[in-house]
Write the structure tokens for this entry.
Amino acid sequence: MSFAKLDALMARGAEFLGSRYAIMAGAMTWVSERNLVSAISNAGGFGVIACGAMEPERLSAEIAATKALTDRPFGVNLITMHPKLAELIAVCAEHRVGHVVLAGGLPPGGAIDAIKAAGAKLMCFAPALALAKKLVRSGADALVIEGSEAGGHIGPVSTSVLAQEILPEMAAQLPIFVAGGIGRGSAVAAYLEMGAAGVQLGTRFVCATESVAHPNFKRAFIRASARDAVASVQVDARLPVIPVRALRNAGTDAFTAKQREMVGHLDAGSVELAEAQRQIEHYWAGALRRAVVDGDVEHGSLMAGQSVGMVTREEPAAAIIEGLVGEAAAALAERRE
Ligand SMILES: Cc1cc2nc3c(=O)[nH]c(=O)nc-3n(C[C@H](O)[C@H](O)[C@H](O)COP(=O)(O)O)c2cc1C
């Protein structure tokens, strides 16, 4: 099969990333560490280390260990709310990380300047057109637009709508990577044809052989179908819930019950609003680690996107990437000239 059409559509994204394919494996806290990241990059994709809540020393060690496993480019994903963001950026600069992805809200100006001063390319998440424009003005070199089909923290708008709104307006200005709900190469091809420079997938890579996710976590993914990956439910306007898409389990049901309990306390005046909000905000603290690392799939957080239904077995990262690329090329070959 000819890969010429696919190569042409991926050329801009692949050049930006420095990888064979314009396929990013989105950072997943506790999952995207040295083993998965290096496997993805070695297979021609672009791996991204998830810093999550890591301390700077730990991130430094993770970057060094990843470099020992691959000489291909990879990125580092930092959460803007991290209290030591500036130090984490300095760690990336020390290691000459080529691409820094900022997640979790609008990046502070100092962070953007520091990343760019170190010579790294800056990638940001754009959850809406207005924010995409603002991020470009602030200095983002590329954007990730991630729809609500995705696993983990999500915005309210679906990938297909974000792609239609943002790609025609912005794709000429800078490379845009589409994320959320991509499970097969046919979708990769479609977003490239709509103007995306590349794609980002998370859920499909969780069950890579090289992923260190606990066997229970992987088994839950292999068993689940799209409808099991649900967005967290908010019960009462006084108790805001950050939307997260995860597989439904005893933990998600207990979270809804906990919200109802706190609403009862609020109505009865037996708890302060701030305290109730704190309890809801901290409810899931450590829960992703419990699921990914300890294998507690009942009470931990099983963050997963709707593409989880297309995860059917454990297989090497290279096989997943080859599968996506082959499907994308096949889809393009079927198009009429
Ligand atoms: C288990 C899990 C953990 C994630 N952790 C992060 C994270 O730490 N930072 C981040 O920017 N995105 C995170 N994401 C989102 C992914 O990077 C990626 O954008 C998303 O999975 C793409 O959508 P998909 O799951 O439909 O492929 C996470 C996703 C999953 C499934």
About this structure: Residues 225-303 form one domain. Residues 211 and 262 are 37 Å apart (CA to CA). The pocket of flavin mononucleotide is lined by residues 26-29, 31, 50, 52, 77, 103, 146, 149-152, 179-182, 200-204, 303-305, 307 (CB under 6 Å). DSSP finds 13 helices and eleven strands in the chain.
